[in-house]
Amino acid sequence: MANLLIKSEQWSLPIDLSSLTPLSKMSDEQFYEFCRTNPELRIERTADGEIIVMPPAFADTGNRNSRISGQLFVWSEADGTGESFDSSSGFTLPNGATRSPDAAWILLDRWNALTPEQQASFAPIVPDFVVELRSSSDTLTSLKEKMEEYIANGVRLGLLIDRKNRQVHVYRLDREPEILDNPESVNCDPELPSFSLKMAKIW
Fold first, then answer.
1. Alpha carbons 15 and 93: distance in angstroms, whole number
2. Contact in structure between 126 and 155 (CB atoms under 8 Å)
3. What are the tens digits of pLDDT across the range 69-114?
4. Which three-class secondary structure string do you get for the chain?
5. Which CA distances in Å does 139 have to 146, 173, 176, 192?
6. What are phi and psi of 20, to 5 degrees?
7. Cβ–Cβ < 8 Å for 4, 44
8. Half-sphere exposure of 197 toward its Cβ, with a 13 Å CA cutoff?
9. What is the pTM of this model?
10. Residue 135 to residue 43: CA distance in whole angstroms
11. Deepest in the core among 118, 139, 170, 173, taking most CB within 10 A?
């Protein structure tokens, strides 16, 4: 059976389940159709097939997300070696999970190796860089587990931004996570050469 985990505090979330008859573990095609049927929601899928439905971000979280994506986009366009993605982008990881980080970046040669059909779906590729921004409905434990999943699946650099505690958890391949307390910026060298995420307007 497919489990639906709805992340909500005080939300009424109408979810169209018409594409899930009978309700069972979804195929990739069924999951894609389910997401298309509910475009107002951010939907992820765990490696075990559990569906996680996330309500639209609160305004201040969306504002901070756009500031993160904006900085990444400006750097990526100037650097020219990769493509940047915002929080609406979904990626299928090697373990079968479909995740939508708040921001992501992928080396251009890896992205271009995908077919147009793959790029137009939940692309079967692990981003080189991801950012997760903790919202009021997120637990730190669940986000740490997600970051560990990213790294285990091949993400080279991941940032978990905890606004509540003004900390940034930095994840890298083959290293223990590093915690930065109230940093002014986060240096993303060498994975993203010369990119430094400025935190002043993200806190």
1. 25
2. yes
3. 999 999 999 999 999 999 989 999 999 999 999 999 999 999 999 9
4. CCCEEECCCCCCCCCCCCCCCCCCCCCHHHHHHHHHHCCCCEEEECCCCCEEEECCCCHHHHHHHHHHHHHHHHHHHHHCCEEEECCCCCEECCCCCEECCCEEEEEHHHHHCCCHHHHCCCECCCCCEEEEECCCCCCHHHHHHHHHHHHHCCCCEEEEEECCCCEEEEEECCCCCEEEECCCEEECCCCCCCCEEECCCCC
5. 11, 23, 20, 28
6. -115, 65
7. no
8. 32
9. 0.86
10. 16
11. 170
Q: What is the pLDDT of residue 63?
A: 93
What are the structure tokens assigned to 103, written together? 């921001």
Tell me the one-letter amino acid at 30.
Answer: Q
